Each structure stands twice: as C-alpha cells, then as structure tokens.
C-alpha cells in the first residue's frame, strides 16, 4: 500500500497505564469518548489479544487507525482479517479492509479532528489542518482499516 513503512512507536510506561485504564473503563461499559476494546487473534498463537482503540466514522463508514504505526494488533489483524470491538456487554464481530495510502488523508484528518487530544503526539508535526500532501507523506506509517460487518 504505497511505500513500505516499519514505523512503530513503542508504548511508554505512562501509555501502558493509560491504555489499561481506558480498556477497563470501556470493558465495564464506560467508553472514553467512543473508545472500544479491539480483540484480534494472535497471528502465531491464535489466542485473543486486546487493546483499546479509537474508531472513527467518516461518510457513513467506520475506520480503525493505528497512531503508533505497525503495531502487534495491526500485524495480527492483517493475518486474521477480522476482530471484535467491545464496549461493555456489546460485542461486535467484524472483518476489515485495509485502506491504500492514497485514500488515507481524509480519514487521518477526521481521526485527528476527533482524537488529537489523545493521540496527536504520535503524529509528529502533523495536525487536522495539515495539507493533503503532508498527510500523504506520512500515510505509510499509519495503517488504516475499514470496519465491515462480519457477514458482509
């Protein structure tokens, strides 16, 4: 999907604490600003792995963006092609379609508009007002997936 990127930002100790707190709140039914817990089967173990994510809706479609780059959940979902989103007792199974780099700018802009307060620091010198050319430059380092109904 465009040029190959291996961009990955490892979570700090503070990030880990924040992610645990957001994950816990989301699991008990108090999602932070629409957060969900993403569960994906491990690509080698087959065991479910979970992490909090911030879905974004744009033009009637839902997307998952990986602000830290090519993380383990990204690698796992590319292999499995599906996952679960959970908030409280609501569990939604879905499949994914990866978005090519040239189609990412409006999605990245919407994501930054909604979530920059939480993840903006992962978008080095880029914000919701950055030109499309700049968003295209960074696109390979930010995997984006369309969330599709499991049966579709």
TrEMBL record:
Domain of life: Bacteria
MF (Gene Ontology): oxidoreductase activity
Pfam families: F420H2_quin_red (PF04075)
InterPro entries: F420H2_quin_Rdtase, Split_barrel_FMN-bd
Name the record gives this protein: DUF385 domain-containing protein
Organism: Microbacterium rhizomatis
């Amino acid at each position: 999907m465009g040029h190959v990127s291996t961009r990955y930002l490892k979570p700090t100790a503070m990030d880990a604490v924040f992610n645990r707190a957001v994950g816990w709140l989301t699991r008990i039914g108090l999602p932070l600003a629409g957060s969900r817990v993403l569960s994906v089967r491990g690509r080698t173990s087959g065991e479910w792995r979970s992490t909090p994510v911030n879905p974004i809706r744009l033009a009637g479609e839902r997307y998952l963006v990986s602000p830290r780059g090519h993380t383990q959940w990204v690698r796992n979902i590319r292999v499995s092609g599906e996952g679960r989103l959970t908030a409280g007792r609501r569990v939604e199974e879905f499949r994914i379609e990866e978005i090519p780099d040239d189609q990412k700018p409006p999605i990245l802009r919407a994501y930054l508009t909604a979530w920059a307060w939480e993840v903006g620091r992962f978008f080095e010198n880029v914000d919701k007002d950055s030109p499309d050319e700049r968003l295209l430059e960074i696109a390979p380092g930010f995997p984006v997936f369309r969330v599709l109904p499991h049966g579709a």
